[in-house]
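Good morning,

Both structures are done.
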Amino acid sequence: MLLLGLTGSLATGKSTVSTLLSQSPYNLPKIDADVLAREVVEPGTPGYNKITKHFQSTTPDLLLPFADERKGRPLNRVALGRRVFGSTPSRQRDRKILNSIVHPAVRWAMAKSILYHYLCGQWAVVLDIPLLYDNRLDIFAPVVLMVAASPEVQMSRLRSRDPHLSEEEARNRVASQGGVDEKVARTEARGKGRGYVIWNNGSRGQLERQVNEVMNEVERGRRGFWRWVLLVLWPMGLLWAGWEVGRGWWGRRRWEAHVKAKEE
């Protein structure tokens, strides 16, 4: 089963591409890291308890007023965002603490979902992960789709989508997910057939045509006979998965060496 990594910075149109891939003619199941990140911090979960224990004493509006009588008041995601998004040392420290709580829980939930889709015989699954590279999960995705847009388009879309954000808050949120240019270069460095950049500065129709071209290439040679061989002969499937992870790990090492050489 192919794990198709889908990533992109804030307001680039990644969610639109994710929706397209889940619909006809692709009909691919998707594992959405953002959805899982919300689920693992719902009231009553271990993640929720850890967040309230660390942040509530210094964030008075951390919890929303309405409550589930059995589980408690849900998190105020806007207030939590104000607490962790930004470039000051204190906000960077708080963001690391929040990520250390959320990310392990999300990875475990993703692993269970991947196993489920594998057993269902799916030929591919979309891993919708905004911070695919930042969280070092790219080695698990033999193919990565990077959705990109110019900074001006990003800011315009974000301010339109979330009008409650000030310009500074919007810039902090965009900056928190890293620069688009670096992710584009990293995706292109994966090589032919393993990394695709989809530019989304234009219309919906232009985006759909790009996605169709990319998926036609991705599907070529990855469906049919070999899909069933790897499903039925699961030891061979495990070997293939290990080979792909090894390729991803080696590719990341080459990229990091390349970046280090440029800095020197």
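Second structure follows.
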Amino acid sequence: MEAVQEYSRKAEDVIDQLGQPLKPYIPAIARFLIVVTFLEDALRIITNFGDQIYYLQRYRGFPWGISHFFLIANVLTMLSCSALVVGRKHTEYAASALLGVVVTQALGYGLIFDVNFFLRNLSVIGGLLMVASDSFTRRRQLFAGLPSITENDKRTYLQLAGRVLLIFLFIGFVLQGTWSVARAIGAVFGLIACVMIAVGFKAKLSAMFLVLFLSVFNIVVNNFWSTDHAYLQKDFIKYDFFQTLSIMGGLLLLVSIGPGGMSVDEKKKAF
């Protein structure tokens, strides 16, 4: 066990050294990646507005006018709140509004009972919770001399919920697709990393591993740019690609701000 801890410490040191030049930019990169799926979705609705209206009215039973309001409200919310998240302005309210978009779209498009969609969106919500927790972290730093027990508790619980929800994407990866030796090996290491993130043990190292894993997975599996335009699943592959980027953003934010008070890593610091 001591040998494993020694190797993990060395790995963390190597990652810190390699990532030192990027360290000041990681929070900004993470925030942009978290909202990129909302920006892409807003652009998709704008460019395919007529098709979206037709689908909602024909297959989802939306009345005329309600379908227009639904789409316009979603687009405006996604664009404005994404800008607020990237600009670090009122991020807890912006993250809450984007969470509302995730829920309303799941209900509006009838995808809430799709297991893959459900698990992916849990991970996206986890990223949004990490954004909200980061806002409480910065607020506490601004008012370090004032009592902040309530906000500290909020931050701790948001970080716990955020990091637990982030790993659900990988559970979806394990449940779908055909199996191979490489896939089985990746699944084993990925699940170990997910458990470590959930309990907050070597959470930053585990999150970096998943970021690297998902980067390769996204390029190899969700390569929508090389898919024929006539392929019916192209839009779904593109959607999965940007959602995976958002979840990678949540993991990068975890690397930046840490797993929070309710974690093995933080408890070890106390002893």
